[in-house]
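ARCHIVE CARD
Drawer: 12
Card no.: 0347
Subject: one protein chain, sequence and derived structure
Cross-reference: see card 0346
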Amino acid sequence: MTEPSTAEPVILAEGVSAGFDDRVLFRDVTFDVRRGEVFVILGGSGCGKSTLLKLMIGLVPPRAGRITILDTEVWATEGRARLELLRRIGVMWQQGALFGSQTLLENVEMPLAEHTGLPPAARTEVARAKLGLVGLSEAANRLPSEVSGGMLKRAGIARALALDPPILFLDEPSAGLDPITSAGLDELIRDLSRSLGTTFVVVTHELASILAIGDRCIMLDREAKGMIAQGDPRELRDHSTHPTVRAFFRREAA
């Protein structure tokens, strides 16, 4: 398997700007994400982390710039071509976004029912395999209300994996979890990245998770209205001279 540090880019963001009405969130953000790496988008509250994720998956248009995923420009593609692109990515939202009236197994089966021609028995088999990947084989027939927050996040990842996408986007996966559960989820993300070769783009401000899972990262800043750092998070922690970056990674007052 190619090391992420030498792999080709699968996502390119070039001069991307975003905002709402007369409010600018960030300007001229440029970076790439390489095949098979865990790439983290970090920063404080209100810096535009989740908005950048929404731009990348086609939910919010940029004010300027372009985003290319798997050699396809997201906002220059329409119709069937765009649908095909979006089928090649998976998304796990912060709260899991599972349907409460369906079991975990049924939730994971849903993308297979909507986007494949697999018969019901085959869909069930695939969904069980995805739940097994995230350690939820025994919870397949439980409702979301019957499992813990950590299990909901794992089920959300299983559903995002249903169509075997090469890229997964995770929005604040550790939010609301205790430190032990969060560490277990971090380990799962690293294991899936290594075993499946999946590229992960993770939005988070949880420092422990950033250092545990991130191969590379970018840091957005609300005051700067843009990107103030990029690279290996451990290198940024140990060597950055930018006061805001140092404050974030060393838990110091800026």
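Annotation on reverse: The two ends are 41 Å apart (CA to CA). The chain has a mean pLDDT of 93.
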